[in-house]
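Input set for joint prediction.
Command: fold jointly, output tokens.
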Amino acid sequence: EVQLVQSGAEVKKPGESLRISCKGSGYSFSDYSISWIRQMPGKGLEFMGTIDPRNSYATYSPSFQGHVYISIDKSISTAYLEWSSLKASDTAMYKCVRLGKWNDLDHWGQGTLVTVSS
Amino acid sequence: DIVMTQSPLSLAVTPGEPASISCRSSQSLLHSNGYNYLHWYLQKPGQSPQVLIYLGSNRASGVPDRFSGSASGTDFTLRISRVEAEDVGMYYCMQALQPPLTFGGGTKVEIK
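tokens >
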């Protein structure tokens, strides 16, 4: 069974750094790209970026470029989403998702709630 | 970026009645392989989105046949032939042709 398991909820202060994770299992991790999706409270889905495990190359939506960093460790089948300096506006649910054959989002992580508050 | 414009914002439907959601892309989503790279998702309350329709008109595994998708140029439509109570939630279209992938703003479907 394909599973993406994310790290637990985080509470941080503005300016702090954070890295959350997404561990894949039940499939060949290197064969599928992983994307990150943001959903702010009561809002819609926002695509943040994608990383290809075959070459560790990440692409970002312009709205998130320069503010987050996506990385991957194939040896432990884990993708990461990282901030160097959080803002209150980063408070949201973040979900990792596997990109399927047609670039469809075919398997989702359970989500990591990030709360940034002073 | 490709902009996806989805309408309506919300929809209240009587059980058993049909419903329709539209999505327009700012440019063609037609891949050289002949497929439109447009997918439809349903996010039920408290859950992650699930794919309903992929490549414009193909029902995903396990999706009831009351759901259908169609395309005409840059206009895409999701139809529910007879809405059931379990169909409530947020519906999103998403273009998957060109990075960054982009979503429509969502349509909230409620039961009258």
